[in-house]
Write a structure and sequence with these properties.
By secondary structure, the protein is of the alpha/beta class. It has 2 domains: 6-202 and 388-402, Glycogen Phosphorylase B (Rossmann fold, 3-Layer(aba) Sandwich), CATH 3.40.50.2000; 205-386, Glycogen Phosphorylase B (Rossmann fold), CATH 3.40.50. The protein has 15 helices and 14 strands. The protein has helices at residues 20-35, 81-100, 117-128, 142-146, 155-170, 179-189, 215-220, 241-249, 267-273, 289-294, 315-322, 335-343, 354-365, 368-386, 388-402, and strands spanning 6-10, 40-46, 60-63, 66-71, 107-111, 132-136, 173-176, 196-198, 226-231, 256-261, 278-281, 298-302, 326-329, 346-349. Helix 1 (20-35) packs across helix 15 and helix 2 packs parallel to helix 3. The longest helix has 20 residues, at 81-100.
Length: 405
Amino acid sequence: MKSAPHILFLNEFFHPDICASAVVAADHLPKIATRRPDWNFTILTGNRAWDDPAKRYPATDAYYGVNIIRVPRPAVSRKSLLWRGLGFAAFERAALRAAARLGRIDLMVGTTAPPQGGRIAAKIAARAKCPYIYKVLDLYPDTAATLGKVRRGSLIYKRWLAVDTKVMKGAAAAVSISTPITQRIARTRRIDPALLHTIHDGYDPARLTLSGPNHFAAEHNPGKAFVVQYAGNMGLSHPFETILAVARLLSAEGGIQFQFIGDGPQRAGLRERLPPIARLIDYQPADRLGEVLAAADVCLISQHDAMFDQAMPYKIYAILAAGKPVFFVGSAHAEIAEWITQFKIGWIVPHGRPEQLVEAIRGVMHDSIARDSMSQAARRLFAERFDSFRAADAWVSLIARHITP
């Protein structure tokens, strides 16, 4: 009797981590495993917590039908590109050793967490003599160049791009999480269109269910002000200048509160520039996200203009599931901007135009009918396109086509 196919995933972080790539993997993999109980699933990940490198997780574990193998990952500063690179290299060596001990692998799936995850997947697949799928979360080296970490056109950039392109061309399939990213890959890598797929990550709305009073709202907004909320990563790809300017312009008005919730390289600078009507709040546990979003009247997403076809802010899906109006500060070419325009779920504001965002906030603050219309449209869009069960089904279909017979 033939044994069950073994699918190996590679992602630098996994449950119980709270970073986006870990949350997505922990959402999708159990759903895929439930749909295909005749397949065996393993995820190869790091042993240190994303938000607290001093915290280490067990070397082996299981999570709703998914076997977890965690390999040593050094605690390195996220601020230093050199030290991050050394950390990525150490993770790669440990991952290759661990994969070699797993025996039969029928399909390998690697992601850009870490950035060279596709290359690691290709190496593991070559040893196992199986195909691999390359999932692009953030497109490298493009994002590194956009954020000034490497110089576009430099030797490092050209070599990185050449390696990434080779890995994509060698994959059984290359999957990105947004249409503009897929289009950029096709344009800049000249990949066979038959290899390219777009599968939006989506979200599981059950994770937002409130089982009792909203303690987060009671703690952070006891006066029941109108809440304009930014929740998530405070990385370099999410500029805050326009949002902070808006908060300063609205400081003289009563009954409004800005909430900045999360962590990242920009948190310290953000703390120094907060106006009186703003609160800086720590990252909240994943099981409190329902409370966090329920406490918001409108939600903010900010993205570097040039990143529109290089990354997708994962927070959009939970915002839609919660039925919150979306205020997007970024490029009109972004996929989120397209959704806002087509489905009338919020506003698009360019960076450097705070007066437009002030007008938009004032408009919805004093027009509950418009706010409710945006909320209902957001929920409809989510239900039609972005429940993560749809993503899981798409992945099941894709995996089934590429498992080694």
